[in-house]
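Morning!

This is the sequence you dropped in the shared folder:
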Amino acid sequence: MLAKIKGFFYGFLLLHLLWFCGHYFVNERIIPAPLTVYLRMDLLFWHEMSRHIGHSLWRLFISLVISILMGLILGLLLAQSKIVAKLLDPLIYFVYPIPKMAFLPVVMILLGLGNSAIITMIILIIVFQIIINVRDGIRSIPEEHYQTLITLGANKWQMFKDITLPAAFSHILSSTRVALGTATAILFITESNGRIYGVGRFIMDAQSRIQWVDVFAGIIVLSLIAFILFLLIDLLESIFMKWNK
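The structure's back. Tokens below.
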């Protein structure tokens, strides 16, 4: 844990050093100083930003929860049912490489410019990563693990609870951690195309008004949302996956 804190501190310092160099050497107007942005964020939060943050955080959280549930269920079925695997494996292999953002115009025409379209797009982007990771993770469990419990008299539910489910949960956390950056990027793109509250909409509005300080404030807030969820995943891993250490 201490190593993670040190890594975060060094990364924070390096990022802000690069940011300040960009402000000083590139263009002071387009790249405002870090202190200017942080002072502006305090004012924006109480007057405007808090509502945008609430909407974005809710959409991202709901999308991740639905994706995790879908990924867990389908990954388990694909790994443990030969019939389901024969039916869905070819479909997943075909659909997974397709750039899902190409469906954004279709999804927005069908579902509008509101929450349904945004949540659907985020789910489409990340759910396949979770499905494949869970499926492959369960399939890679050595048969000896199950045989050991069988010799001890364990039933199917006990083997599922003690071996299959922990392995699936481990791969869910790792794949969700990887997909989180992609989910945040999709959140920004979909919100910026809509006419609703959200940090993506706030950033695009600020850009249209050539308010670069507000643009950077929105970028930092969007990054903080993703970082908080990243820490939440780490917390869940430390609580439920102690055996993995």
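Headline: The mean pLDDT is 80.

More detail when I'm at my desk.
O.
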